Amino acid sequence: MVLTDTQKQALQWGQNVFVEAGAGSGKTTILVHRYLALLDQHSHCDSANIVVITFTRKAAEELKARLEKKTSISLQQAPITTIHGFCAMTLKEFPFESDLFPHFGIWEPSDQLFWKQKIEEEFLQNPPDPLHAVIDHALTNLSLLEFKKNIWHPSHPASHYLIQQYQAKKQENGVLDYDDLIEKTILLLLEHQSILRLLQKRYAFIMVDEFQDTDEKQWQLIQLLCDEYDYLRAKKLFLVGDVKQSIYGFRGVNSQQFLRVMSEFEAHSFSQVVRLGDNFRSQSLLIDWINQHFKPLFEKGNPSIQYTALKSHRKETDGSLFVKEESMDQLIDFIKDQKNRGIAFSEMAILGRRKKLFSDIEKALMAADIPVVTNGKLSEKEETWDLFALFCILLQPEDTLHWLRLSKRWPTFNPDTIQTAFQCSVPFSIEKWVLTAQYSGFANTLLTLGHFLSFSKDILYPFIDILSKIETTTSKHDLKERLKQLILNHNGIPLKTEGIHLLSIHASKGLEFKSVVLIEAGNPFYCPNKDLLPEVIEEEKRLLYVACTRAKDHLLIMGNGSEKKSYLHFLDL
């Protein structure tokens, strides 16, 4: 790929670079080129000296794969990872100084949610004596649902006790959650200057992808790795992002941080800001429409945003843009028309702010002989984690967490279930179950159990395939963590390859499709807290921008009415 003049500016080294990369501007290409240029132009620098922080594990693996195709060196051990992956790597390198067990585990957000819910349920069923009176008094004025709302917030009377229980549960299991990883790494660097200096010297360059999704604590850590007094003085930063695609406010990300840091780069003599307006994804018809509507939409709501107009590099002129009332018949007619134009179902996507309607849409499309793929990621299927729970019990029969998960799914689940599965005439104790797994292998045992418990083959077979590949080459101590990592990094389940994608707007970020349908564009935004309304409105604008910029050739916006706080109102349609 031949780089544009603006893209070449982003490759200049010897200074900090902040790249504001508009949708479809080829930012991953820039990351690849800059990484390779750093290796080529700095003889003292190798892959261990360049940190690349990505937003997801999948993005990290894809970036490694692209880089390895262009270089002869292996990058599997290179620090190309998520911010939480980087923190885990650092803490495990310095466990004594971090006051941690070297082989600590990590709770994913799903684990964190499970334990918080369990602690909450136990608390409500059997509250400690000091809080009995508090709960009784509260429930005289509130419903149980209202009492539970924001129960983990520090202002809630029960929060202190719940947080204590949660911390104790983490300590008991020898694990950290994502917040711990960030906080303990920052603490390590602040309390141990020698380690801070070591890492500052080791990491000559730091690259951050999707910077708009970086929160305040993560940014504090990145600055420390540069220089604790003036982070720009080290001239090692390369930040890439787009404030117009900052859509994770619910995770504590503030778009104002992006704008503040960008202004700091602009004012600093060792730094520059490069604005990429080139678009290699969408036809000019769509890009012109996007510029026309989103420039005033963004700049009116937030004057500090300088909208960089996109410029299409596509030469095709057969694109289309429609706005129609929402109806299932109109949706099906549009999809069939796109198919008649030669567009594969797999190149089409239906995007929605909520997933509530997806089930009805899927049924209607299937009834019209239109195949659907709602989500192909192995890690996002409940059955995957049920299988993982089965594996964990085979590995450690005393694993209470996973017994609880399975007993909720199958109330009658117990060792007798396993006896039936293996057609044993003698009582099948847990010990014999574990011995069977150790003798026949975890993969073979799980395959038998999976068939007996009627797991979907689309889930069971990829899971068993992953486990069988690592079972004989990974120690039992590391097997659980390795399996979990591979599940989370798994690209997808081989479902219907010709299906239309049904995705939330959040899930569509980073993807592109020839034809995109945005549904419920006339529905009002949900905002229970009126004080947050201005922030919600600004984030909804960014969500709309993400949705519209997924389309390469054809875009259909569907909605009924024009509520004041809706996408149709934003676009004055």
SSE layout:
Layout: H1 5-9, E1 16-21, H2 27-41, E2 50-54, H3 57-69, E3 80-82, H4 83-93, H5 95-98, E4 105-106, H6 109-125, H7 129-141, H8 144-148, H9 159-173, E5 175-176, H10 178-191, H11 193-202, E6 205-208, H12 216-226, E7 237-241, H13 255-267, E8 271-276, E9 278-279, H14 284-301, E10 311-312, E11 320-324, H15 328-340, E12 348-352, H16 358-367, E13 372-373, H17 382-395, H18 400-409, H19 415-421, H20 430-440, H21 442-452, H22 457-471, H23 476-489, E14 500-504, H24 505-508, E15 513-518, H25 533-548, E16 551-558, H26 567-570
Parallel strand pairs: 1-7, 1-8, 2-3, 2-6, 4-5, 6-7, 9-10, 11-16, 12-14, 12-15, 13-14, 15-16
Helix pairs in contact: 4-10, 6-9, 10-11, 10-12, 14-25, 17-18, 17-23, 20-21, 21-22, 22-23
Question: Mind explaining what this structure looks like?
Answer:
It is built from 26 helices and 16 strands. It is an alpha/beta fold. The strands form four sheets. Strands 3-2-6-7-1-8 form a six-stranded parallel sheet, with helices on both faces. Strands 11-16-15-12-14-13 form a six-stranded parallel sheet. The longest helix is centred in the middle third of the chain and has 18 residues, at 284-301. The radius of gyration is 26 Å and the shape is globular. The relative contact order is 0.11.
